[in-house]
Amino acid sequence: MAENKHHEIESLYNDSQHWHVNAGDETIHAKRMAGRFRNYKWYASTLYLLLFILPYFRWEGSQAILFDIPHRQFHFWALTIWPQDIWMLALVLILLAITLFAVTAIAGRIWCGYFCFQTIWVDWFTWIEDKIEGNPIQRRKLDSAPWAGKKIRLKLLKHSLWILISILTGVTFVAYFTDVYGLWYSYLTMDAPLTAWVVLGTLFLFTYVFAGFMREQVCFWLCPYARIQSVMVDKDTEMPTYDILRGEPRGKLRGKDSNERGDCIDCRLCVGVCPTGVDIREGMSEGCITCGMCIDACDSIMDKVDRPRGLIRYASRKEMDGKPLPPLFKRPRVVTYAIILLLSMLGIIYGLTHIPPVELSVVHERQPLFIQMRDGNIKNKYTIKAVNKTPTDLHMRISIETVQGISIATDKDKTAVLKSGKIIPFNVFLIARPEALKEKQTPVRFILESIESPTIRIEYESVFIRGR
Ligand code: SF4
Ligand code: SF4
User: Fold this and answer.
1) What is the mean pLDDT of the chain?
2) pTM exceeds cut of 0.85
3) In a mutational test of the pocket of ligand 2, which residue from 290, 299, 311 has the highest number of ligand atoms less than 8 Å from its CB?
4) Which ligand 1 atom minimizes the distance to the CA of 297?
5) What are phi and psi of 391, to 5 degrees?
6) In this structure, are residues 186 and 192 in contact, taking their beta carbons and an 8 Å threshold?
7) Distance from Cα 350 to the centre of ligand 2, integer Å
């Protein structure tokens, strides 16, 4: 008997024809129910509300979080990331990607269910729809009703709120790239630059259409993550799963043979609450975003029919087959992800704690490499490019370390002012008696020290070229 059921599970898991795909021909009106996983979804979406207010935070008179593209700087409160530090961005991207892989390997599409922009925005939009148009039955009725007073009024209100959220989404996105107060002013006075209008229009359109109309179709047909998730999960991945051994044969609560039936009373509430219209009893499907709404729904039914909760629950294929779940440290995939995560995190921490206040490069003049002067001395020209990453101007003392006989040509070249946040190249000339130079190329170390803050000291290796 149990053997037969295991075969049944296998065929349900493997047979994709069991998944009925709604290809957009009908609007899914999912029922909203209170429950544990609904609460988790609210907590996660509250985090997104932060995105709307973060651009308004200030730090030392400027926007605290700002991607300042014209000046090629990224400000994050006291931290400023320069193009020279951009290697950290690669580590951040690796960190995010590996976190996604690791979370998917452990608990399926948690990202889709709780944190994805698309599903969060759809959840807000459908919450508004639910509040204005009523529950799914009322909404379907309203959809099929002729266009008249009440329908027009309700639809207008709903779409106005959707449009408002879509505009706010667009403005908020742009606000991360420019001063938010100036941005609002320029939009309200219709004086914003064309780029700001184009980005706002694009974001508005995508939000309104994707969250309001396309909804789960975006997950099904546009999102690449849904396509590749199958290679990230394995038999140990815990996902919302219907306990087929316990639930089948399903059937109504009362009636003939009801004692021989499984715990599933075939009420279809789990399907009714699913935002993607999936029937989880048909096995794992590409459409399941692992939001857990069906778990809440089924638990509420099990409470009512006095059966234990968990007919649908987070479980792995192995657990469902009666095998124990291995600990995370015994799963090679999870361990590999954890190591990469740790390394990228260490790299980012190192990078953030070692951002130099001044970045220096010294370029030796190539045309000509050297000049022989009338008095016989050899002169080399260098272009110094220094980025002052501190918030104040720095007065720098310039010196060199090299063999005796090479010196800075004039006193004027021994100091420089580095403007805060600017790269203003300047030239320095070195001079030497030819007889003091044993080699064609002599190593020279340039040293720049701040007069105000002696702890700011940077060095750069170059060479002095004698020629023949
Ligand atoms: S909610 Fe539970 S009892 Fe109802 S159909 Fe779904 S699995 Fe069966
Ligand atoms: S099947 Fe359950 S977990 Fe999957 S998307 Fe539907 S409600 Fe969410």
Assistant:
1) 90
2) no
3) 290
4) 1
5) -75, -5
6) yes
7) 40
Helix (H, G, I), strand (E, B) or coil at 149: helix
Q: Looking up tokens 């609460």, which residue turns up?
A: 39
Compute the average pLDDT of residues 406-411.
92
Distance 284 CA to ligand 2 centre (A): 10
pLDDT at 12: 43
Q: How far apart are CA 334 and CA 342, in angstroms?
A: 12
- DSSP-derived secondary structure letter, 355: -
Residue/partner pairs of 218-226 with CB below 8 Å, 24 or more apart: 218/118, 219/112, 219/118, 219/119, 219/276, 219/287, 219/289, 220/21, 220/23, 220/276, 220/286, 220/287, 223/112, 223/118, 225/100, 225/109, 225/111, 225/112, 226/109, 226/112, 226/286
> Which contacts of 328-336 are long-range, i.e. CB under 8 A and separated by 24 or more positions?
328/106, 331/105, 331/236, 333/105, 333/234, 334/102, 334/105, 334/106
Asked if residues 464 and 442 have their Cβ atoms less than 8 Å apart, the reply is: yes
Could you read off the pLDDT of 130-146 as tens digits, one per residue?
999 999 999 999 999 99
64 within 8 A of 75, measured Cβ to Cβ: yes
Q: What single DSSP character describes residue 220?
A: I
At 224, the pLDDT band (50, 70, 90 cuts) reads confident
Nearest atom of ligand 2 to the alpha carbon of 280? 1
Does the beta carbon of 320 lie inside 6 Å of ligand 1?
no
Which of 74-88, 95-109, 248-262 is the least confident region?
248-262
Domains by residue range for the chain, with CATH: 358-465 (2.60.40.10)
**Beta-ladder partners of 81:** 74
Ligand 2: list residues with CB < 6 Å: 240, 273-274, 276, 278, 280, 288-294
Expressed in angstroms and rounded, the spacing between residue 288 Cα and the centre of ligand 2 is: 5
How confident is the model at residue 73, as a pLDDT? 87
- pLDDT confidence of 9, banded at 50, 70, 90? very low
Tokens representing residue 106 in the block: 């452990």
Span from the CA of 140 to the centroid of ligand 2 (angstroms) = 21
Q: What is the pLDDT of residues 227-281, one digit of tens each?
A: 787 788 889 999 999 999 999 999 887 666 667 789 999 999 999 999 999 999 9
Phi, psi of 191 (to 5 degrees): -115, 10
